[in-house]
Amino acid sequence: xxxxxNKFLAGLLVVSAxxxxxxxxxxxxxxxxxxxxxxxxxxAAVDAGKFAEALPMLQMLVKDNAKDADAWNLLGFTYxxxxxxxxxxxxxLKVLAINPNHLGALEYQGELFxxxxxxxxxxxxxxxxxxxxxxxxxxxxxxKALKAVGA
Length: 151
Prior knowledge:
9 helices; mainly alpha; globular; 151 residues; 2 domains
């Protein structure tokens, strides 16, 4: 039991050094630690709009499995929703280094590009998505986001 507790404390110290405020707001209602988090736990928190709660879970997941493109993608999305745009950008770049054709990352990175005024890069992501999947949900969502800003 003390090994699990020590692992949790070490993880908490790392996370709190990086993002002190989100960590203190990130407890779960059942008392489980971020060290025990699973992707479904993190996804459920994100789906519920609990981005500050999801953040340490996702940070732990990518620390434990640096090749998990889906966890990196959800981490990038979470950073973006928290306004941490540089961290979001870095996470999407990590996803695309693991899987250059990751549909979700291409969509979300495109949305980040729109947020940061890089419309040409967002359009390039849309073209790549359309080439990969035609009119899939990710391509449609990015296209709607571009149209919403008049692009």
